[in-house]
Amino acid sequence: DWTPGNVIADQVAAIRAQVGDARVICGLSGGVDSSVAAALVQRAVGDQLTCVFVDHGLLRAGEAEQVERDFVAATGVKLVVRDEKQRFVGALAGHSDPETKRKIIGREFIRVFEDAARDVVDDAGAHGEEVRFLVQGTLYPDVVESGGGEGAANIKSHHNVGGLPDDLQFSLVEPLRTLFKDEVRAVGRELGVPEEIVARQPFPGPGLGIRIVGEVTAERLDTLRKADAIAREELTKAGLDDEIWQCPVVLLADVRSVGVQGDGRTYGHPIVLRPVSSEDAMTADWTRLPYDVLSVISTRITNEVSEVNRVVLDVTSKPPGTIEWE
Ligand code: XMP
């Protein structure tokens, strides 16, 4: 029988058997998957777990604060926050190929986890057990689309599956590997993960790094963060959060178009809105958002974000488009 309670019981037993007395770290993004994975591992091995929140500079506005406020408050989990903005933006410099960017981000995540693991061991002092396990909130669709499933093509290297370096020092603990998103949400609710986290829309691990088509720079990240915050604010205000699965906001950094503002010519970048409806992210349709909401978002973005002079709507289903542009 599939029930959240049974999944929890099975996974708690499996995690205990896999991990034993060792220390475990978990990359926590604040999203549904990593939060539920962390809560499961905490249920299984308690204090042996340390969560690591990596501020990689590819986050949306307000995300770091939200993790500390919602998740730690609810679970009391041990959390380490690492400011790694320079590292990620530096490593991404000069790269615009999507798979290359994904692999770089995956590799840098692991390096940060290795650094964090050393600090955890140092803090443990006398105990000094090695950190040998890394928890990841990998879901079934991530496995399939990274080419890990039966007969599946490698569509994208999800940072937590296909993008791992060959010399990985950790064994992976992936308690959600057989689950779909709605099942993860059910498990999370059963574990008492707060609704603000369980109900969150998906956000990819590589963050805004794969929502800038072209090279990732600090300035472009700022531009995209502003546009994304406006879109999210207006969608929430219009009461549409439950209706859409997610709405990636994408900056076409390699594209410019001519515009006019006031008396002057502009030559700015387009922002793409990609609202989608989906059951499990394996397939999706574009969401028919109300025109007045689209209009407000477009007007605000072009007025408030000076680098952007055009807003376009992506009306492609998945397939043939994927949800994210990279
Ligand atoms: P695509 O673009 O493949 O996205 O249609 C399907 C779902 O997965 C999310 N996504 C990711 N999630 N790490 C993640 O944790 C990743 O590397 C990644 N890439 C895409 C995407 O936001 C959508 O919900």
SSE order and pairing:
Layout: H1 4-19, E1 23-27, H2 32-45, E2 49-55, H3 63-75, E3 78-83, H4 85-92, H5 98-124, E4 131-135, H6 140-145, E5 171-173, H7 181-190, H8 195-198, E6 212-213, H9 218-237, E7 249-252, E8 257-261, E9 264-273, E10 276-277, E11 285-286, H10 291-304, E12 308-313
Parallel strand pairs: 1-2, 1-4, 2-3, 4-5, 6-7, 9-12
Antiparallel strand pairs: 7-9, 8-9, 10-11
Helix pairs in contact: 1-2, 1-7, 2-7, 4-5, 9-10
Bound molecules: xanthosine-5'-monophosphate (XMP).
Xanthosine-5'-monophosphate binds at residues 145, 156, 158-160, 202, 204-206, 246, 281, 318, 322-324.
Give a structural overview.
The radius of gyration is 20 Å and the shape is globular. The strands form three sheets. It has a five-stranded parallel beta sheet with strand order 3-2-1-4-5, with helices on both faces. Strands 6, 7, 8, 9 and 12 form a five-stranded mixed beta sheet that branches. Helix 9 packs antiparallel against helix 10. The chain contains ten helices and twelve strands. Strand 2, helix 3 and strand 3 form a beta-alpha-beta unit. It has two domains: 4-198, HUPs (Rossmann fold, 3-Layer(aba) Sandwich), CATH 3.40.50.620; 211-313, GMP Synthetase, Chain A, domain 3, CATH 3.30.300. The two termini are 37 Å apart. Helices cover 40% and strands 17% of the residues. The model has no long low-confidence stretch (mean pLDDT 93). The longest helix is centred in the middle third of the chain and has 27 residues, at 98-124. It has 326 residues and is of the alpha/beta class. It has helices at residues 4-19, 32-45, 63-75, 85-92, 98-124, 140-145, 181-190, 195-198, 218-237, 291-304, and strands at 23-27, 49-55, 78-83, 131-135, 171-173, 212-213, 249-252, 257-261, 264-273, 276-277, 285-286, 308-313. It catalyses: XMP + L-glutamine + ATP + H2O = GMP + L-glutamate + AMP + diphosphate + 2 H(+). ATP binds at residues 29-35.
